[in-house]
Amino acid sequence: GDSVTQMQGQVTLSEDDFLFINCTYSTTWYPTLFWYVQYPGEGPQLLLKVTTANNKGISRGFEATYDKGTTSFHLQKASVQESDSAVYYCVLGDSGSWQLIFGSGTQLTVMP
Amino acid sequence: DPKIIQKPKYLVAVTGSEKILICEQYLGHNAMYWYRQSAKKPLEFMFSYSYQKLMDNQTASSRFQPQSSKKNHLDLQITALKPDDSATYFCASSQAPSYNQDTQYFGPGTRLLVL
User: Fold this and answer.
1) Distance of CA A68 to CAs A19, A30, A53, A101, Å?
2) What's the whole-number mean pLDDT along residues B55-73?
3) How far is CA A23 from CA A9, A99, B14, in A?
4) Which of B45, B50, B97 has the CB atom closest to A100's CB atom?
5) CA–CA separation, A94 and A85 (whole Å)
6) pLDDT of A9-44, one tens digit each?
7) Nearest-neighbour CA in chain B from A94: distance (Å)
8) How far is A105 from chain B (nearest CA, A)?
9) Which residue in A18, A65, B45, B48 has the fewest CB atoms around it within 10 Å?
């Protein structure tokens, strides 16, 4: 079945460090891919979205590129801030179903 | 103003009881969803509704029943509650039921604890 893999459960950085979170996906369709961010006590909120029509998404300094060859959708940011501390989910929107398929999430902690 | 309202925010129930989780969205969306987030697990899709009709059900148990009284409401009734049902339940909505090309917007969640 369709799946999303995030291997990094936790990432701890200092302010102004470079962020890179791995994500790979598996599906037989051509998915829309999302990164959602979840802050404590809140629901997930969209960070960025990439479809098959455009290979890259950029939002709030975060960037993700859709690589169909390696089936990867890594998230990166050049310089993180303490306010970026949250859980980041790589999410697969399969065009063949109604559901979003969430990865296991990466807890990002940015130290001041 | 919050665009997706979930009530209550916290809920404690005893095993075997029944509870209803409320969800209302004021985004003008036509599709609504329920997801569950158990401890140490990723969010799991439960149901999707489009124009008040059930489109997809990935919940194995019939103890979970969505109820849509209005286009912008999708409540979740849970009967015969079990401790394993303890989780945070998120409601979401999207503009159109377009097989996941649409962004889904999530509510703040209802945290359910079953004792």
Assistant:
1) 22, 9, 12, 18
2) 91
3) 11, 18, 39
4) B45
5) 28
6) 999 999 999 999 999 999 877 788 999 999 998 999
7) 6
8) 7
9) A18
Nearest chain A Cα distance for residue B78, angstroms? 20
Q: A99–B33: do the CB atoms touch at under 8 Å?
A: yes
pLDDT in tens, B17-52: 999 999 999 999 999 999 999 987 889 999 999 888
| CA nearest neighbour of A84 among A76, A96, A92 | A76
- Cα of first residue to Cα of last residue in chain B, in angstroms, is 33
DSSP letter assigned to residue A39: -
What pLDDT was estimated at residue A94? 73
Per the CB < 8 Å rule, is A99 touching B4? no
Mutate to test the interface with A, among B3, B40, B99, B111 (most CBs of A within 10 A): B99
| Joined tokens for residue A82 | 């303490």
Residues B64/B58, Cβ–Cβ less than 8 Å: no
